[in-house]
Amino acid sequence: MERRGISVADICPFRGIRYNQRLITDLSRVICAPSDIITTKMQRDLYRQSEYNFVRLDASLRSASDKSEDSRWQRAAATLEDWLDKGILQIDEVPAIYLHDYYFTYLGKECMRRSIIALVRLEEWDRMIVRRHEKILPELYKTRLSQVRMMKADTSPLLAFFEDQGGRASSLLSTAKLGRPIIKINLRSNADSRHIIWAITEPNLIGQMCDSLAEKPLYIADGHHRYGGALALWAERYASCPSMSRDDPFSFVMMELFSASDPCLIVRAFHRLVRGIPEPVLGGLLTELMAFFEVEEWLLDKSDIWQKVDVLLTNIDPDKPDEVVMVLFGLASDRLFVLRVNDFAATSRAMPGSQSEVYKRFAVSIADQIIIRKLLQITGSKREKQLAFSLDRRDAVQKVSGGRYQLALLLQAARPEQIISIADAGETMPEKSTRFYPKPPTGFVFYRMV
What we know:
This protein is an alpha+beta fold. 33% of the residues lie in helices and 24% in strands.
């Protein structure tokens, strides 16, 4: 299917839908976490918290009587219509780009991340205007496709970042005359975060902002399945109506965009947990590792051992910016093992030849391809039973100490420039490679196609 048109990102304002604050006076009771981190218990708690909580639109509860995935989104669509009819939700009169200041604390440091919420024209992956670094999980893709098809709405933006080497976009964002915010809220449920949002409606400023981003590829940080679902729905409509306008509302997806150079762009690592490894494999693991890594033993009886581990995994040595370090816990009761790649030629040879050198030097790729697949022999269907992931180093260690898993492999977080390099090469990372932190709450503003 050939698409005519531009070769740069097309970023547009839109008439956002948001809560009517004359009727919903306490937004903290209706804003919720993103759907992919909401548990069933959280869903039920949010349902009880308010009859107008946004979870009813973005993460509608399943029912035993549902005939298909579409059923719950049909209920959500009816809820959306009801809230619009009652005036609980209102549609902004003027198209806007929404500026979002997100204040939060991370590792004791006060942070503020500035982003814009706007529409971005859909483009196929192979055009490399929007670039990905993850594979799409089928179950999330299907859920998102069903949701948008039934609701005809984008209830939460996907997150994407851009390179701003000249600083033009950041300069515009930092110097814009913003006036009175449309939303100002503290959310204790979202790590004591604070949010200020402005609607930018002045055409010249909107034009400058869109132009400053237009020639830059956009890198999806979170929400690959949302973009994939939007593309699939666009393809459905195009197939039924090939003359469909490029400005059809379904030709756009809502994104929250921020600069890759923002110091408060935080990427967290998913640590690996493994179980079900035969004793002979475990017994020979250390020797096998030495073919690829310099192995250093750290005794666990040191009072500051875990502080040292955290520093090791989070601080980049300026003299060794490309060093790959990971920590293996559980192989011995009294010590852990620090692994440093000492022979990239050896690790490269042990990985699929079709992968780029950028991919082969990425910590998660090395952990996944060499340690988990090659040495521990966790492949195919065994991965689902034997491999788990944790964002929390303490949680990973506790699960091994408690006997639920045999080993924890603690990893460095990916850097934005690594993600960019892999996406530029047209490659995708192993599953659970990145988590951009923190994820913005949902319910501030959203996009409806009809």
